[in-house]
Amino acid sequence: MGVFARITKGETCMNRIFTAFASLLTVGALLCTLASCGSSEGDEAEVFSTEAAVYTTGASAVGTSDEDVLAYFNKLANGIKDQKPAVEYRIEKSIPTDSLRVTKRGAEDAAEPDESLKALNDAAPGVRDLVLEDIKRSGGSIAYGDENEDMLLVTGETWMSRLTPTDIEDALLEEVGDNYYITIRFADLSGAEAQDVLSRAFDLRDKEAILASPELQKVSAYLTLDDYDVVYRGCRITATVDRLTDRITQLRYYKAADVTAYVTGAGTFADYGELSVLLKLEDTVTYDVNWDSGLPVSPLESTTAD
Q1: Would the pLDDT of 5 be above 50?
Q2: pTM here?
């Protein structure tokens, strides 16, 4: 049963508050579709440094500049879509409770929200849990050789990354045993720049599509979403590479968005007037990649000559 079916039964004031909040959070969560790397609860991902790395011979000679590491990553990541290994994937979404609050429009920086908004702010954690119950975790698998364009980032494309050196903050590589560990980090991004840069490796929803979402029609009697601002902070991609074969064995994408949604109350919420809803959306996607075809080996290939 969907979140709206669960919370709109009956017409109490609290149900209407939950309905309005659930719509905002559900629409907001669409901003955080797919891609990422790191912990969905904000843990700091390990960042690999090249300073102490000792590089030995692998399948390819890899430089340590941002340009060299990124070019190497792009080649291997795009090879996953082209060569179609088996993949298991996990998607996690979260909205930290301490990031979620409602304020009067223009009072987003106030230390405490207006007392008249206490009911809305008190309802926020419960609504968050209801929304995340439906979307917080998902996953699946792709068999060796199966089409993967609609399952892997960037969905619908024949490639996974078209990042350029100007898109990223840095690209770091460390060699440990038979593996390379790659970390690609992004500067804070907002507006058209975020859409332009992050869409080269992540899935992002277009603002016009969000504002026209049918989800908003479900609560149009209570509020309207006038606009929103998003700042992406701490986005990163990490990859584990078998350096002897030049094949990625794990990819993780982390995308975090600080969202300020500007809404106006309607109907029974008209007295609230113009409000701002602030929240942080976190999205983590992990791909475990298996290059073993799983097919039987030909006797001609497996038989050792006497």
Answers
A1: no
A2: 0.81
